[in-house]
Input
Amino acid sequence: MRPDLPSKFQSKSITSDIVLDSNDAHLFGLFVANAAGITVTLPNADEGAGDSECLVVNNSSGSVTLACPNGFPNGFDNITLAAGASVLLYCAPVFGTSYRWASVGATAS
Output
């Protein structure tokens, strides 16, 4: 977490489909999905979301989808987070002005 953003430790509970913007990505460091079958749409992987890092925890009994069209490496549009799983996300430049969400702990689909 970035030391210049102490609010990054705030959490946001998610109980239904939601579209996050780059402000959400910078403000919250922890997103907790409390309902199965929902879709969490991440901000576009661009300079606005650049250097955003967050942890998404699936606290539900089913899978949760994290979506961002063409926002993950290799052109993947979404990743699936199994029940009880967590994923660390980081938006970073991959070349020039192109950004992608890197994920550790989820399955791309």
